[in-house]
User: Fold this.
Amino acid sequence: MFKISPVIILVLGAGIALSPTIENKVLAASSVEQLSQPQAEIQLKQSAIYYDKYTLVPLGELLTAFGASVEWQANTKTVIARKGETLLEVTIGASHAFVNKEKVTLDLPAVLLKGKTYAPIGLLSDTFGSHLSWNPYTNKVAILPQTSQTEFSEEERAFTIERAVDEAKLHSDVLDRAKQEIMKQELRYQEAEADSDQRPALKLAYEMAKKMEDVANDQTALLVKQTYQDIYVKQRAQKVNAIAYGIAFNQAEIANARSQIGRISRDQLNTTNEAMERAFRNLRQAKAELQKSRVKLNGLLGKPGDFNHELVDQPRYSVAVHKSKADLDAHIRAMSDKSPRLWQLKEQVKIEQRKNDLSADLKEIAVKNAEAALASNKASFAETIKSMNELLTLLEEQYQIAQRQLKSAEQELAVEITKYERGWVTLLDVMKKQLHAEQSRLELDRLMIQLDQAKSKWEKPWL
Assistant:
């Protein structure tokens, strides 16, 4: 049995807890942090690890690199480091550390792996006043100047969908234009003579402008929600690609070891290495796609492109909205009454019916044309709602299947971890089950989001 590289660690799925003393139950970094203009780089001998969005680094090694003296107190399982006037105390399993005797809350408790203490990289960033960034593919820690993100508190960076929508509306050009259109149409209506033949049409334009402001509000909210949810899915996709890269990386290491003792051919080795390179490119692409969506959301929020927002809400969907035929017909009637476009066409029919400046024949033609436009749009609108109902029914069936598949995948992963702990399978076997579980979770998240967005359009089909 070949040893798995320490660069690769396993990130456990939902419902499976991480033990601080079991190194092989955590998985490979799901992102490569950008290393721009580092002041210095530290090549680690022990690999850092990535768990639950946080990077854990070998504490003693980095402290020594920073020029600190390091002491280990075995009876209390505490690392004590001194550099100049700075005193740092970190205890295994504790949720906090002490810097110059002042309590500092940790993102994750320090853990003991292979006799080495690992702690969140952010602790050293805060202690020594520099931003540290780990690259899992070179196993180097870059020391960077503190970024502008320190200007924002955790509360300022945390966004629910509701908060994101509220902030986006404050910065929406679409809403600004809608408000300007209302003022423009109101002015035209007020300036028209009381007996002007154009006054009914101008009033209609003014009322329609007000309705379109409501539509602009709803469209802005929907766009923000879609972008927000897109980020969540791409975060999950990045994690899936990280696991896939971890598997490919280990398979390549095993292939290299076998090649050295003549167990596989050069072609087999090249095929394995090419698979690893593809997995790495996929991971890099997933990270790039995630960053694009983050920049898009920041633009909607009126934030700088590199603003590091934290998403609070997770995808969820539980209420079925598809209807029986009778309920569907009632929904179509209700939505038809609320549709801004259909309201406009109904009002246009009334205007044509009230006109007195046309001959009877021309007036009849104008009314029929207006009524035909209304009927055509109503029929198209009804078909749109029926299609939505069919889509919701299909998505809910797929969602139920995905739920069962995820449950099965998580059970298989739990069984594989138990086998691994008993020495019956390799870590690579566990990682493959983890990949299957995360792929199932990704599919379920995608379906939940599709259902949620379809439900939004079902409730307001004119968006």
Observations:
- The first strand starts at residue 40 and ends at 43.
